[in-house]
Amino acid sequence: MIINIENLFIRSEDQILVENLSLTVQSGRPMTILGETGSGKSLLANAIVGILPTGLSQEGLISLFGRADLSLAERQALWGREIAVLPQEPWLALNPIMPLQEQVREVGELVMGQSDDQSRRRSTSLLHKLGLAKDHAKIPSQLSGGMAQRGAFAAATYAGAQLLIADEPTKGLDASRRDQIGAMLKQHGQQGALLTITHDVQLAAQIGGDIMVMRQGQVLEQGSAQEVLNAPKSDYAKALINAQSDRWPLRAQRPTGENQLIVRGLSKQRGGKTLFRDWDFEVRRGEVLGLCGDSGCGKSTLADLLLGLVKADSGQIKATVPFGPQQCLKLYQDPPSAFAPGVTLGQLLEDLIRLHKLDRQPIGPLMQQLKLDPGLLARSASGVSGGELQRFAILRALLMQPKLLVADEPTSRLDPITAREVTELLVDAARSSGCTLLLISHDSGAMQRVCDRILQFTPDRPLLSEPLLGARAQQCA
Amino acid sequence: MLKFDLRAPTTLLGVFLLFALLILVLFEQLAHGVDGTVQLLDNAFALPSWQEPLGTDQFGRSNLARLSAAIQISLWMSLLCVITAATLGTVAGIAAAWLRGWVDASIGFVVNVLMALPGLILVLLIGALFPGSFTALYIAISLVLWVEFFRVVRAQTLSLLASPEIEASRLYGFGPLYLFRRHLLPRLLPSLLPLACFGAGNAILALASIGFVYVGLQPPRAELGLMMVELFPYYSDAPWVLAQPVLCVFALILSFNLIAGGFRHDH
């Protein structure tokens, strides 16, 4: 038994963060802890490694490699050699100014005491195996999210640790990258011991082994992956599994509207990189158009161009019916960053109503439609949850009766259940008010089910597709 | 949101020191009632008594009255300078960040010229040109202080103007005044208030420094730096008199610096 935890409690001064948790991890039998952010999952990883934040206390038994009485110094001696941690958002964990191979090679030199030559050879072969042979000299800012993730994986597993702890390894990665990292983890899980902490049901399914569902520090259920994923017992696990984007109800419609925007010969460069050149496409009135592509490919820039926030290098965007003022609006990825601090949401709404002499009448029904509690208006942006704030942002936008609404990754910071709810409300509200919705997302599964048309970024041209047929076919199969 | 945290012992000490000095001034104004300019030469360096709780100086003038007048001058000077510098620096900083182009370039040029010579030299220069003038010193010190406000405000405004919250408000059609009131000011205050406290400390130090080299306010005015240099020849006869203005300057500056540390930015 690699990890054996019995009756673990983690407490802060005024609350219990992890309650009575017991689990075991063995070699060849991966363990996945599934639950939303803030449910105490990451604290568990900290407790195992021995780096619980100060101010928190733990109680109960954690034994590693059959030893329960490890001191912090003894645990530290295991770091890297026996226990490896794959960090969240690895592009932040890598050294930003050091070439990738150097960072991997350092592990050999500093942790294992290898010679320069040895570590160089091993790091080269490791990078080669992970498909990073060509990128060994790049620094993290030149790597994509997926490449950085694999680079961090190389560094974390270099010393051949038996136990690998992966904390939200797929956060912010799109589907294809997620499958890659899932395959890497799965492979490790077959030989060594693997503890994965995630909110991503698909990743959990891919890894297999055992699953434990956690919410607010409590274990709701546990069992083999097949059992839990196919026949979840707790309501929360059911909701979490149903919130996966490939299970969303189909919202896409066959696009019918006439053209609203006609784009011709659009080109834009940023930081010396060509984002797109000579693009032609149309946006139809009232459709839900998805913008899909890797991070950094220029999705947000294209949306800002359509909103008129950024100027194109060349080409033109023509509206068939000119937009009035404040008819092109935007929803942001991180809801709290899009609101003024220190004032109540009600005050912000009041500011808007006074500025534009808006009719108050639609507010009540809209709030109902968006499932917003009137009590929220008395709180400030920092006092409500991300999902509530994003729904309030939708309310604020729809009050202006916009013709074009850009939603830039509106749910990527929300947990899956809330993300599904917000996306559905957004799409329904946009449809019922006849507003064109431009949805930017890296979750292509969700886009397939929600968008009328999808604009896929490819190196030379925009690839427009209608996912409806494909998604319908998938549903029948 | 911005909070002033009184619980930290250092902050508490700062507030206590400032209050103690204000109470000294208040006591002198209400209960003492002796003219600090009246000389009684046969009563020089009198020890503290009920009539003169802090004793007298080399001309037999009341130390308490002179100290109180000097503290008032220092506090008024720092208050005026900080208000002027903060207003000027904030307006100029926002203007530079907002308008960019030639406005930014020309304000930046002025700031670089001002930064090229040490602040105290500029104050000395103006002090020497207009000896004994409170107004000239006020302008000189403000001129040195506003640069810091400008730099901080300009840098923060630049990044704030690119932030989603301001982009959103602009898309909704809100004008510059609204953006200032709702977005810029609440975000800037957490850095402006500590800066203002440090500025007040610096203003007091500058006034005392040039008083000490006889370039600032002139006798018979009571000013902390001037009092130090006047009492300096008697340091072996009456060290306890010399110690009074020294301790006052120390307490004033320390209190403002400690208070500056009490501002917390809570989310």
Any descriptors?
heterodimer, A: 477 residues, alpha/beta, 6-stranded mixed β-sheet, 17 helices, 18 strands, 36% helix, globular, B: mainly alpha, MetI-like fold, 9 helices, 2 strands
Strand content of chain A: 15-25%
Class inferred from helices and paired strands of chain A = alpha/beta
Distance between the termini of chain B: 6 Å
> How many angstroms separate the termini of chain A?
41 Å
Strand order of the largest sheet of chain A: 5-6-7-3-8-9
Strand order within the widest sheet of chain B?
1-2
Say what oligomer this is.
heterodimer
Number of domains of chain B: 1
Transmembrane segments (chain B): 73-97, 109-130, 136-153, 192-217, 237-260
Subcellular location (chain B): Cell membrane
InterPro entries (chain B): BP-dependent_transpt_permease, MetI-like, MetI-like_sf
Keywords (chain B): Cell membrane, Membrane, Transmembrane, Transmembrane helix, Transport
Describe this structure as you would to a colleague:
The complex is a heterodimer of chains A (477) and B (267). Chain A has helices at residues 41-49, 72-78, 90-93, 100-111, 116-129, 145-157, 175-191, 201-207, 225-230, 235-242, 299-307, 345-356, 363-369, 386-399, 416-432, 444-450, 467-476; strands spanning 3-11, 16-25, 31-34, 57-64, 83-86, 163-167, 193-198, 210-215, 218-224, 259-270, 273-284, 288-292, 314-319, 328-331, 404-408, 436-440, 453-457, 462-465. Chain A is an alpha/beta fold and 477 residues long. A six-stranded mixed β-sheet of chain A has the order 5-6-7-3-8-9, sandwiched between helices. Chain B has one domain: MetI-like fold. Chain B is 72% helix and 2% strand. The interface between A and B is medium-sized, with 24 and 18 residues. Chain B: It is found in: Cell membrane. Chain B: Residues 71-260 form the ABC transmembrane type-1 domain. Chain B: Its main location: membrane.
